[in-house]
Amino acid sequence: MSETVEIQWVRDEMFAGRDRFGNSIVIGSTPRSDPQFRGVKPSDLLLLSLISCSAYDVVRILEKQKRRLDSLRVTAVSVQQEHPPYAFERIHVHYRLTGHDLRAEQVKRAIELSETKYCSVYNTLKHGVELSSDFEIEKE
């Protein structure tokens, strides 16, 4: 399976990215010449890719289990090397869920399935980054 995504340099440290479906995102950092510009830092995109990939899986798995999910918030806390290339050393993912009939064992299983079977980003990163996760089910 081969897919194509692209970025195009706009100016300074600003790039326009486009996914395989034509959806756009601004990537970069705040250039010194344009303090109004805000773009997503490339290393943050990696973290966002990881947690969005897994969140998608968790939602789908819980739906298949007929669990009512009212909200899901996923955060990633990372540690990177202090010197170039600033490689990621550790990433911890935290899932915060609410739902009427969510059970801890089902949520745990949904996360495990995402991390071991379905999430391509997680399964790519696990070979070079220490990954961990936990979750909490909040009362409605």
Question: Can you describe this structure?
Answer:
The protein folds into two domains: 1-40; 42-138, K homology (KH) domain (GMP Synthetase, Chain A, domain 3, 2-Layer Sandwich), CATH 3.30.300. It has three helices and six strands, in the order E-E-E-H-E-E-H-H-E. Strand 4 (71-80) and strand 5 form a beta hairpin. 31% of the residues lie in helices and 33% in strands. The strands form two sheets. A three-stranded antiparallel β-sheet has the order 1-2-3, with no helix packed on it. A three-stranded mixed β-sheet has the order 4-5-6, with helices on one face. The longest helix is centred in the middle third of the chain and has 23 residues, at 42-64. The model has no long low-confidence stretch (mean pLDDT 93). It is α+β, with helices and mostly antiparallel strands. It has helices at residues 42-64, 104-118, 120-125, and strands at residues 6-11, 14-18, 24-28, 71-80, 88-98, 130-138.
What's the topology here?
Blueprint: E1 6-11, E2 14-18, E3 24-28, H1 42-64, E4 71-80, E5 88-98, H2 104-118, H3 120-125, E6 130-138
Parallel strand pairs: 5-6
Antiparallel strand pairs: 1-2, 2-3, 4-5
Helix pairs in contact: 1-2
